[in-house]
Input
Amino acid sequence: MNILVLNGPNLNLLGKREPEIYGTATLESILADLTEYANSQNALLLHFQSNAEHELVERIQSILLESSSNGKPVDGIIINPAAFTHTSVAIRDALLAVAVPFIEVHLSNVHKREAFRQHSYFSDIADGVVVGLGEQGYRFALEALLHKLKLQQS
Ligand code: CA2
Output
């Protein structure tokens, strides 16, 4: 099983700025934990972070090409679209087009923050949403996604 983790703009700064909001873990340490857990479950973790909306759209679209060639198919997606959560119809449309199950993750509790963070272009089409649990949220999302995919396979 191949799981793609997608992270949006500024998440490359995790652990380096604003630890009071986003925690002290770096993106590298979060990915190391996810990779270890994925491997223990015989799954492969793929990761892509970008500050550019079109690059995220292109990475999602590339799943269609990978599935029809001999590339690695993606079975599930964990996405923290970051600021694009609140703005991106383009990333929403790309996820709808590939139709791969996905879980939306937010480190902070967006519902406790500014009003503009309380609308997501993803939550109504996601298989699940994890909000406000910091770095652990990615791990919970991975466990839930693998569980769901295994149930679908059996
Ligand atoms: O809570 C989340 O995970 C967010 O997706 C993070 C986004 C924010 O725009 C969303 O409303 C909620 C911001 C990511 C910025 O990441 C940084 C990490 C470290 C230092 C500065 C920014």
